[in-house]
Amino acid sequence: MVEEKNWYESKTIWGALLAIGASFMGVFGVSIDTVAQADLADAMIQLIGAIGAMTAIYGRLSATDIIS
Q1: What is 2-68 written as a DSSP string?
Q2: Are 16 and 45 a contacting pair, CB within 8 Å?
Q3: 45: how many CB neighbours lie within 10 A of its CB?
Q4: How many angstroms separate the CA atoms of 15 and 9, rounded?
Q5: Which domain holds residue 53?
Q6: What does residue 67 show for φ and ψ, rounded to 5 degrees?
Q7: Cβ neighbours of 49 (radius 10 Å)
Q8: What pLDDT does residue 3 have?
Q9: Does residue 64 lie in a domain region?
Q10: Looking at residue 49, what is its pLDDT?
């Protein structure tokens, strides 16, 4: 059985969204070189993962009912 993921759990989706955002920034005259773009994408993906982990821990600590 294959576990199904939500769209926001995919690093590929977040990387693509960051690339789209960088492209739009270029339209408005803000340029970011490729190395900085890659570093920014990596940092954002790690941040999103950390937020997801903190949310999971908070949810577990605040749970009052047992899931059966």
Answers
A1: PPPPPGGG-HHHHHHHHHHHHHHHHHTT----HHHHHHHHHHHHHHHHHHHHHHHHHHHHH--S---
A2: no
A3: 15
A4: 11
A5: 34-59
A6: -85, 125
A7: 13
A8: 66
A9: no
A10: 79
Assigned token pair, 39: 């570093």
The pLDDT score that the predictor gives to residue 1 is: 57
Confidence of residue 26 (pLDDT cuts 50, 70, 90): confident
Query: Into how many domains does the chain fold?
Result: 1
Quick check: is 3 in a domain?
A: no
Find the length of the chain. Answer: 68
In a domain, 15, yes or no: no
The token pair that represents 62 in the structure block:
């605040």
User: At residue 60, what is the residue type?
Assistant: R
Q: Which two tokens stand for residue 33?
A: 């070189």
